[in-house]
Amino acid sequence: MPRMNDTSRRRRFADAAREERPDLALLCLLVGMEADPGLDETGIDEAQIELDRLAGQLPFSPGGPEEWAAALARLLGERHDFRGGAAEYRRLESSLLHEVLRRRRGLPILLSVVWMEVARRAGAPVYGVGLPGRFVVGFGDPYGSHVLADPFDGGRPLSSEDAAMLVSGTTGTPLSPSMLTPAGPLDIVLRILNNIRAWASARPERTDVRLWAVELSLLLPAHPARLRYERARLLVERGDFLTGARELEDYAEVVAAVEPDAAETVRREARAARAMLN
């Protein structure tokens, strides 16, 4: 099956992000399409089928939150050996759902997506929890009886003390109730794209990856306005001086009312970009 062109892929991603109930797996796979020229519609279908297949291996309604968490850990963490490791932070593939399904390795948030999508298909009360520095999954009622599990560690159950240690080890601050709020599909996708941007930012030769990650983020219904500035600067860095300068000027107009000094700095950047055309 032929691969969609850039415009079609972006339109499909934007449309999927605006569905009443966004399909998290589909959005993650559309992110993968940007990164992997070999991923086509057939590959997306195969990834969805693999999630269905894994869900079919779970026992029917095993019980309460603890039993669901244990069943997922046995299936995904033990039987299929989904887990993470330090090396995953150095791989772009660790942020791509189709590659995580193939390799059984990934970043915490992508492994959590696998846990959530498999569990959801089996009828589990599951949700994602975006702790600072570590994405995990919850089973049960997030505002009542629930348990947390860490897919990066094979589905290890997390006590309140364990979660607090994860947070304090990353931020040096205590765990707060707000950190345990369920993450919505679009929040998860934005966090995945932020991870990809961070990966590319550490590799100056991969401005191509950073650019598409920014552009997909801008297609989400809610995103940081400063991403427009990042995109403009990337365009200039990649040699598209005219478009970059124009977008810098547009961004300056947006921030001028609240940050006039910052707006003037951006306008100077735009003038410098235009001067590169001479």
From TrEMBL:
<dbReference type="Pfam" id="PF13369">
    <property type="entry name" value="Transglut_core2"/>
</dbReference>
<comment type="similarity">
    <text>Belongs to the UPF0162 family.</text>
</comment>
<feature type="domain" description="Protein SirB1 N-terminal">
    <location>
        <begin position="48"/>
        <end position="194"/>
    </location>
</feature>
<protein>
    <submittedName>
        <fullName>Regulator of sirC expression with transglutaminase-like and TPR domain</fullName>
    </submittedName>
</protein>
<dbReference type="Pfam" id="PF13371">
    <property type="entry name" value="TPR_9"/>
</dbReference>
<dbReference type="InterPro" id="IPR032698">
    <property type="entry name" value="SirB1_N"/>
</dbReference>
